[in-house]
C-alpha cells in the first residue's frame, strides 16, 4: 500500500497477555484480515502494522506498549493514549534508567549509553506517565529509549511533547505512536553499540466533540540544531511512507484514508488556543 523509505519495519501480533509477548508476522496490510479492534490496550485504533516486516517483541507496560527490535536494541515504536485525566502528577521522575529484564539476548545496557554523546531519549515521555508510579518507573526501561542528540532531546523534541500535553487538555483522548527512523547508514553509540536513528516520528489522532477525526505526523531529524518542531509537521501518510508502518488501521477505511492523507497545521494550532 505504501512503499517504505527508511529501512525500518515491524511485525505485529495479537496481544495475548500483559507483559512480554512474542509476535509473528501478520502479513501485508492490503488484503490481510484486520486484528480484533474491539479492545486494544494502548493502541485503541490498532497496533502499528508492518507493510513488510520482521519479528518484534511486544512489551506491555502500565502506560504504553512497545514493539521491540532485538537487532536494533530499541523499540521500533511505542503506542499509548494520553487522556485529560492522566495529566495529573501523582509520581515524580526518579531517573532510574535500567535494562528491560524481560528481554534475553541482545538488549540495550547502561554501558551502551555511557559517555557516548547521545541522550537516552524517551519514546514514551516520562512526563506523560506521571499519573502512575508504575507507569513512570517503566518509562525508564531502556526498551523505551533511543539514542537522541542532546540538542534534539532537550530542545524541539521536548517542546513537541509539551505541546501534545497542552492539546490533551482539550480532548478526552489523544492516540500517540512514536518511533525512530533509520536510513541504512547509522552510526552506533559505541563500538558494537546501539544504532543511532537519523530521525524520529510521532503520529497523533484525536476525535473532537463532533466525533470528527483529525490526525497529524511529525518527522524531526536527529540533529543538535533543528527548526521549530511545527516546521516538521507532515501527514500520517508521509510517516507511513518513511517508516514502513501502517497506523490507525482499525478506523473505518474511508475515515482512515481521509485523515491520514492531509493535515491542517492551523487547525491543530487553533485546538491549542481553545
What does this structure look like?
By secondary structure, the chain is of the alpha+beta class. The chain has a single domain (20-87, 149-273), classed as Extracellular Endonuclease, Chain A (3-Layer(aba) Sandwich), CATH 3.40.570. 19% of the residues lie in helices and 23% in strands. It is built from seven helices and twelve strands. The strands form three sheets. The chain has an eight-stranded antiparallel sheet with strand order 1-3-4-5-8-9-10-11, sandwiched between helices. A two-stranded antiparallel ribbon has the order 2-12. A two-stranded antiparallel ribbon has the order 6-7. Strand 4 and strand 5 form a beta hairpin. Residues 1-33 have low confidence and may be disordered.
From the structure above, extract its key features.
globular; Extracellular Endonuclease, Chain A; eight-stranded antiparallel sheet; 7 helices; 274 residues
Summarize the structure.
By secondary structure, the protein is of the alpha+beta class.
Q: Could you tell me the mean pLDDT?
A: 85
Number of helical segments? Answer: 7
Question: What is the molecular shape?
Answer: globular
Structural class: alpha+beta
List low-confidence stretches. 1-33
Order of helices and strands: EEEEEHEHEHHEEEEHEHH
Radius of gyration: 17 Å
Largest sheet: 8 strands, antiparallel
CATH architecture: 3-Layer(aba) Sandwich
CATH class: Alpha Beta
For the secondary structure, the number of strands is: 12
Task: Indicate the topology.
Elements: E1 20-22, E2 49-50, E3 57-60, E4 65-69, E5 74-83, H1 110-113, E6 119-122, H2 133-138, E7 145-148, H3 150-153, H4 156-168, E8 173-181, E9 199-207, E10 213-221, E11 233-234, H5 236-243, E12 245-246, H6 253-261, H7 265-273
Amino acid at each position: 500500500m505504501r512503499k517504505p523509505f527508511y529501512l525500518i519495519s515491524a511485525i505485529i501480533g495479537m496481544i495475548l497477555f500483559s507483559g512480554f509477548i512474542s509476535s509473528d508476522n501478520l502479513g501485508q496490510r492490503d488484503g490481510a484480515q484486520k486484528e480484533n479492534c474491539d479492545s486494544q490496550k494502548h493502541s485503541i485504533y490498532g497496533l502499528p502494522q508492518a507493510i513488510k516486516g520482521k519479528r518484534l517483541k511486544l512489551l506491555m507496560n502500565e502506560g504504553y506498549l512497545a514493539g521491540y527490535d532485538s537487532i536494533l536494541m530499541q523499540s521500533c515504536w511505542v503506542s499509548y493514549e494520553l487522556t485529560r485525566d492522566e495529566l495529573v502528577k501523582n509520581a515524580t521522575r526518579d531517573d532510574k534508567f535500567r535494562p528491560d529484564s524481560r528481554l534475553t539476548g541482545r538488549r540495550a545496557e547502561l554501558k551502551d549509553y555511557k559517555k557516548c554523546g547521545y541522550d537516552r531519549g524517551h519514546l514514551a515521555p516520562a512526563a506523560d506517565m506521571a499519573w502512575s508510579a508504575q507507569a513512570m518507573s517503566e518509562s525508564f526501561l531502556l526498551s523505551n529509549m533511543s539514542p537522541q542528540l542532546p540538542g534534539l532531546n532537550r530542545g524541539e523534541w521536548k517542546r513537541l511533547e509539551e505541546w501534545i500535553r497542552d492539546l490533551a487538555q482539550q480532548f478526552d483522548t489523544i492516540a500517540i505512536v512514536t518511533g525512530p527512523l533509520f536510513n541504512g547508514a547509522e552510526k552506533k553509540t559505541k563500538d558494537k553499540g546501539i544504532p543511532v536513528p537519523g530521525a524520529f516520528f510521532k503520529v497523533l489522532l484525536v476525535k473532537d466533540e463532533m466525533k470528527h477525526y483529525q490526525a497529524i505526523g511529525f518527522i524531526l531529524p536527529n540533529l543538535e540544531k533543528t527548526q521549530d518542531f511545527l516546521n516538521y509537521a507532515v501527514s500520517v501518510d508521509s510517516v507511513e511512507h518513511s517508516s514502513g508502518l501502517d497506523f490507525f488501521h482499525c478506523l473505518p477505511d474511508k475515515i482512515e484514508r481521509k485523515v491520514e492523507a492531509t493535515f491542517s497545521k492551523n487547525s491543530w494550532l487553533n485546538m491549542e488556543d481553545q
